[in-house]
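Students often ask why inverse folding is considered easier than folding. One informal answer: many sequences map to the same fold, so there is more than one right answer. In these notes we will look at a single instance of the problem. The structure comes first.
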C-alpha cells in the first residue's frame, strides 16, 4: 500500500442533464476529468459539502436526490496529488439535480466543465469515476458500499 498520511471524508456529485449526459469537470490540480467532488470541511455535513462543492466548482445550485454509494477501497480511493501528498478518501457519492445557477468554469479549481454522453467519456478521467457512474446508472436503488 502507498504511504498514506491521512484519511479524509470526501463527496462526489453525479448530475445528469435532460439528454442523460453526465457533468464532468476538468480539474486544475491534476488536469484530469472527473465528477465534481471534494472534501468535507470541519463542521459540515456530507450533504452540505456535496452542495457546496458543486456550487464552487460548477456554479450550479443542486438538490440531492439519492446516495449512490460509499467508497473506501484503497485500490481506488488512495489519491496521489502532484505535490506528492497521498490521501485515502472515504467518499459519499450522490446523485443530484440542478435547481439553479449557471454552468461556469470560473472557479480556480476548474479548467473546463461540460456534459458528456455516457458512452463518450473522455479518456483522461479519474480512475474511480467510471465505477461511480456505473453504480449511478444501475437500476438497483440501494446504495453501494465499495
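Output (designed amino acids):
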Amino acid at each position: 500500500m502507498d504511504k498514506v498520511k491521512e484519511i479524509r471524508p470526501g463527496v462526489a456529485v453525479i448530475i445528469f442533464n435532460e439528454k442523460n449526459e453526465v457533468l464532468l469537470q476538468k480539474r486544475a490540480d491534476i488536469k484530469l476529468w472527473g465528477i465534481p467532488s471534494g472534501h468535507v470541511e470541519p463542521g459540515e455535513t456530507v450533504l452540505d459539502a456535496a452542495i457546496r462543492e458543486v456550487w464552487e466548482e460548477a456554479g450550479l445550485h443542486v438538490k440531492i436526490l439519492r446516495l449512490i454509494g460509499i467508497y473506501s477501497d484503497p485500490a481506488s480511493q488512495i489519491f496521489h496529488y502532484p505535490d506528492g501528498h497521498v490521501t485515502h478518501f472515504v467518499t459519499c457519492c450522490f446523485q443530484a439535480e440542478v435547481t439553479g445557477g449557471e454552468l461556469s468554469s470560473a472557479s480556480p479549481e476548474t479548467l473546463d466543465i461540460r456534459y458528456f454522453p455516457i458512452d463518450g467519456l473522455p479518456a483522461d478521467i479519474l480512475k474511480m469515476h467510471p465505477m461511480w457512474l456505473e453504480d449511478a446508472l444501475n437500476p438497483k436503488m440501494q446504495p453501494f458500499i465499495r
